[in-house]
Amino acid sequence: MKKFKFRAPKLKQATPDQLTDRLLLINLYLTQGLTFIIGIIWILFQRRNPLELFAVQPGSYFWAWGLGLAAVMFLIDFAVSRITPEEVMDDGGINHLLFRKRPVWHIICIAAVVAVCEELLFRGAVQHSFGPYWTSILFAAIHVRYLRHWIPTAWVFLSSYGLGYIYIHSGTLLAPVVCHFAIDCISGLVIRFRRES
């Protein structure tokens, strides 16, 4: 009887010039869908209702928490980008490829999907189990494209910790969702409408 040899699949990193627009979008929506499903399952295993995470308490200023942190993060990002070389903050061209030719409605859609899915998993599920510090380490680690330089990795960690902080103090997942959405949407629009030098 003939033996079958099973080989492990070979995975290799694709460069931005190898990615088509369609492949990039498929990857984005599949990973976000998987993130959402894992988040829901994790929250249900914690015996919590995912919808209750979005509840707003009377007098809650989740908009102020979310937009306030987004404004602070934009100011810090602007300052860091002025004092560091551009290649240090480069993500390998993925954000440019994702947003540069995207219609405005699609940028808004992408920002909303990413904000809800990632915040549901990381702030809603992971942070409940491990706290904001370990959640932020995991959040920075999954943003693989930034790991080549310590400045963007540290920035993703601090951003995640800030999102965890406003989640705790606002009492609703809407605060980090608003912040995450504002950052991704505005950044995408800046890439979309920035003039090429």
From TrEMBL:
- Every copy of the CAAX prenyl protease 2/Lysostaphin resistance protein A-like domain together lies at 103-185
- For whether the record's keyword set contains Transmembrane, the answer is yes
Protein name in UniProt: CAAX prenyl protease 2/Lysostaphin resistance protein A-like domain-containing protein
Q: Kindly give the InterPro entries that the UniProt entry links to this protein.
A: Rce1/LyrA-like_dom (IPR003675)
Q: Which domain of life is it from?
A: Bacteria
Where are its TM segments located?
21-45, 61-83, 104-122, 151-168
In the UniProt record, what gene is named as encoding this protein? ypbD
Alphabetized, the UniProt keywords read: Membrane, Transmembrane, Transmembrane helix
